[in-house]
């Protein structure tokens, strides 16, 4: 906010990465892994690293969480370039993009409730596949609720730097998807695509929970004539019971007063070479950045974070890691 507005579609030269947390709670180990990977990858390439607060879903926002996340990033030596962008300040850009899509006849209003889609659609990897019920118009007696993108065109192919070749026929696997929700909130995929282009992001390094939605984002980039960044999806940190370490589970927020143990663990989780004893986050990063190798990350969607310490030594992320 307040920073000069880069014209949309203009790709600045060089590497520009980003970290995009949602302010739904304090920074969690799982988010720290994504932050560490995107920061290390950007800095190792001599690139810029930006932060965007994804506070689109205001009903889910926890007051004070955005500030807390930013303070935690700073305490971990994850210093960003430029000013932090807040999605809540970007509604006009999202609405303008929806107008462009409507003018190209790429969107249509949908009157179906979630329950109706669940009944009518075959189940796909990403939930029920929307069967196109309202493509020809909202049924009589139904009000338009959400706005959907028509998914047509070829299969989406891209190469992920960690996960390898990816293919998805969005129309077949997902169906026409929502770009503005029934509650009026712009859909995450629309916002992220517009923000990445607006911030001139060339490289997206993020958690593998978003791998399956990347083809939808590429489809939107093509529909809006926006550049497609290069993607790298790093494994998600799972709790020992195999459950996702969600940010809304405040059970294990990382401790900004004691950043080094969690930094070493995130680094180990990403299969990077151990760095040995360092005295500060600054020293950690000056040793880490030249040693960063994204190729060392296993092409997996998730790993239990306890595996970092080896099978016989379950780790408590609040306990200092034995120094190499
Ligand atoms: Zn519908």
Structural descriptors:
single chain; 324 residues; alpha/beta; Rossmann fold; 2 domains; three-stranded parallel sheet; three-stranded antiparallel sheet; 9 helices; 17% strand; elongated; disordered N terminus; disordered C terminus; binds zinc ion
| Low-pLDDT segments, ≥5 res | 1-11, 247-251, 307-324
Rounded to the nearest angstrom, the distance between the terminal CA atoms is 42 Å
Give the names of the bound compounds. zinc ion
Number of domains: 2
Walk across the major sheet and give the strand order. Answer: 1-2-3
What percent of residues are in strands?
A: 15-25%
CATH topology of the largest domain: Rossmann fold
Strand-and-helix sequence, N→C?
EHEHEHEHEEEEEHEHEHEEHHE
* Count of DSSP H/I helices: 9
Annotated CATH homologous superfamily of the largest domain: HUPs
Helix content: 25-40%
Query: What sort of overall outline do the alpha carbons produce when their principal axes are compared?
Result: elongated
Question: How would you describe this protein?
Answer:
The structure is a single chain. The chain has helices at residues 29-44, 65-75, 91-103, 114-120, 170-173, 188-198, 214-223, 259-269, 281-291; strands at 16-19, 48-53, 85-86, 107-110, 123-124, 127-128, 146-149, 156-160, 164-168, 177-180, 203-207, 230-234, 236-238, 302-304. With 324 residues, the protein is α/β, with parallel strands linked by helices. It is 29% helix and 17% strand. Mean pLDDT is 87; it is low at 1-11, 247-251 and 307-324. It has two domains: 16-90 and 199-213 and 220-305, HUPs (Rossmann fold), CATH 3.40.50; 91-192, 3-Layer(aba) Sandwich (Rossmann fold). Strand 5 and strand 6 (127-128) form a beta hairpin. The strands form six sheets. Strands 1-2-3 form a three-stranded parallel beta sheet, covered by helices on one side.
